[in-house]
Amino acid sequence: MYKLIYHKTMTTEKWFAYPGYQQLLMIANELNRAQHALEKGDNSNAIHAWERAFELTDLTVEDRKNSRLLRELLRFREMLGETFISLDPNMNKLLMDGLIMLDPVAYNAMC
To answer: Where would you tag: which of 3, 50, 101, 107 has the fewest CB atoms within 10 A of its CB?
Structure first.
């Protein structure tokens, strides 16, 4: 694992201790922050939120308990990159909704 820039106190052990649904919700929280920043026209804060989302996604991909979602998580990461480049708030919202749908507990927590 590379050195984390935004989550300096986070370790893989600490991240792996969170249940999978909570990991997804924490990533979604960063997407939500990006959404709010984009709505305010603050692209810089949106970019930072997406960078934090990348870090958390990479940690989630490394967690073996999420192996059943590996393909979806990697596709999510790819789409996150496209959203990062495009700065598209609509794509960000769709990405956040799709992420939450990966886990029923995460989905129910958001509804």
So the answer is: 3
For the segment 53-65, the average pLDDT, to the nearest whole number, is 96
Angle between helices 89-100 and 70-86 (to 10 degrees): 170
Query: Is residue 12 in some structural domain?
Result: no
Spatial distance between the Cα atoms of 63 and 66, rounded to a whole number of angstroms:
6
Within a domain: 3: no
Angle value at C-alpha 92, between 71 and 18, nearest 5 degrees = 55
Output the pLDDT for position 1: 64
